[in-house]
Design brief:
The chain is about 0% helix and about 45% strand. The protein is mainly beta and about 350 residues long. The strands form eight sheets. It has an eight-stranded antiparallel sheet with strand order 13-22-16-17-18-15-14-21, with no helix packed on it.
Length: about 350
C-alpha cells in the first residue's frame, strides 16, 4: 500500500550567516544525542537537549537536505520527552535519494562558551548554527530505537466457523486454434505505456489467471512469461515482453497454453472450528519500525512452556479488505473483481460525459 509522503518547506538554513558556527558530529550549544550515522528507511530520530547558553524563548529551526538538495521531512514530537531532551523524528521514504545529506540547526544564544554576549547586530536574531553530514540509505532496514506513539493493546475474540473443505484445481488452457492472441507494443496503450500487454479477440481471460504462466508459439520460436495482472477478459499484463535480441516486438498467434491455479472454493461442512481473531492496536511508531511480531500461546491447564503460534509480518492497514457472508465469511479484497456479485455488492459506477479518455 502506498504511503503518504510528508513534506516541509525548504529553508536553506545552512546558508544563514550567524555569529557562531559549529560543525562536526557534536554541538556544544544544541547538545545532540542518539543521532544515527545512517538514516534508514522509515522513521529515524534523535534527541536535542540544548544548553543554558540558548535563550529559553528562542525558536530552534532544524532542516535536513538530501543529496539533491531537497528537504527531508523532520518534526519535533509534541508532548514527548526523554529526560529533559526533546525528540525529533525524521521520515526517509523509499524514493528518498541515497547519499550524503546535511543536517542544520539554528537558534539564538545569550552568550557564547566564554561568557561573551553577542554584538548588538546579533541580538534578537538567529546567531548560532550547527551543521553536520549524515548518510541516507533508504534501502537499508530501519534499526532505530522503537518509540511508540501510544501504549499498544491487543484484543482477542473467538470466532466459531464451519469447517471448510477446500477445492481447487491446477488448470491448463490449451488453444483450440480458433482464437488469436497478440502481444501489444507498450506504447500502444497510453495509461500503461511501460507494460507489455497480451490481448485476445474474444473473452478468454479470468482473474484466476493472475500469477499463472503463458507460453506461446511464434513462428519458429516461442514466448513464455508470468501473467502479472488481469485487466479484463480480453487483456492481461505480462511480466516480461516478447523480445528478439534486445528489441521488444509485438506478436500474433493462435497456438498458446495458459497454466494457473484455480481460485479455491470453500465448501462448508457440519463440523465447527474455533478461531482466534487477534487485533493489535496502536502500533504506530514515533521512531523505528515494527517489522514483525510473534503470537505465543500456552494452555491454561498445562505446565508446558509458551509456544510460538505464528510469526506475522506487519503491513499497513488494507482499506479494501473486508468480510461478508456472501463471500464465504472469510476476508477478501474488494478491489479484485472475481465475479459480478463483487461489483454489485461493493461498487457503483459513473462516467464523465465530456473530455477524452482511453478504455480497453
Amino acid at each position: 500500500m502506498p504511503k503518504q509522503h510528508l513534506k516541509v518547506q525548504k529553508r536553506n538554513l545552512h546558508q544563514i550567516q550567524t555569529w557562531i558556527t559549529e560543525s562536526g558530529p557534536s554541538s556544544f550549544y544544541f547538545n545532540i544525542s542518539q543521532l544515527p550515522n545512517v538514516l534508514t528507511a522509515g522513521r529515524n530520530g534523535f534527541l536535542i537537549l540544548g544548553s543554558e547558553n540558548l535563550i529559553t524563548t528562542t525558536d530552534v529551526l532544524v532542516e535536513i537536505l538530501d543529496f539533491n538538495g531537497n528537504s527531508v521531512f523532520i518534526q519535533p514530537i509534541v508532548n514527548y520527552q526523554e529526560g529533559l531532551s526533546r525528540l525529533l523524528s525524521i521520515e526517509v521514504y523509499e524514493d528518498t535519494p541515497p547519499g550524503m545529506a546535511r543536517l542544520t540547526i539554528v537558534g539564538e544564544v545569550a552568550f557564547d562558551q566564554d561568557g561573551q554576549r553577542p554584538p548588538d547586530e546579533w541580538v534578537g536574531a538567529y546567531n548560532v548554527k550547527w551543521s553536520t553530514n549524515v548518510f541516507i540509505n533508504p534501502s537499508q532496514n530501519n534499526t532505530s530505537k522503537i518509540r511508540l506513539k501510544k501504549f499498544p493493546s491487543v484484543n482477542v475474540t473467538e470466532i466459531l466457523n464451519p469447517y471448510r473443505r477446500v477445492e481447487g484445481n491446477f488448470i491448463t488452457i490449451q488453444s483450440s486454434g480458433s482464437v488469436n492472441i497478440s502481444g501489444v507494443s507498450p506504447t500502444a496503450i497510453p495509461f500503461i505505456a511501460t507494460k507489455y500487454i497480451v490481448q485476445s479477440d474474444v473473452p478468454i481471460f479470468s482473474q484466476d489467471m493472475q500469477g499463472g504462466n503463458m507460453t506461446a508459439s511464434i513462428g519458429t520460436g516461442s514466448y513464455e512469461s508470468i501473467i502479472e495482472s488481469v485487466i479484463n477478459d480480453k487483456h492481461i499484463i505480462m511480466g516480461t515482453p516478447y523480445k528478439i535480441g534486445s528489441t521488444i516486438l509485438p506478436f500474433e498467434t493462435s497456438i498458446y497454453n495458459i497454466s494457473f491455479q484455480e481460485r479455491p472454493i470453500f465448501l462448508k461442512t457440519e463440523l465447527t472450528r474455533s478461531f482466534a481473531n487477534i487485533e493489535l492496536n496502536d502500533l504506530q511508531t514515533l521512531t523505528g519500525h515494527i517489522y514483525q511480531y510473534d503470537v505465543k500461546v500456552r494452555n491454561v491447564d498445562s505446565a508446558e512452556n509458551i509456544s510460538t503460534l505464528a510469526t506475522v509480518v506487519t503491513e499497513p492497514r488494507e482499506l479494501l479488505e473486508t468480510s461478508s457472508v456472501d463471500f464465504g465469511d472469510h476476508r477478501f479484497h474488494r478491489g479484485i473483481f472475481i465475479n459480478q456479485l463483487m461489483v454489485d455488492t461493493f461498487w457503483t459506477g459513473s462516467h464523465i460525459s465530456s473530455g477524452s479518455y482511453f478504455g480497453l
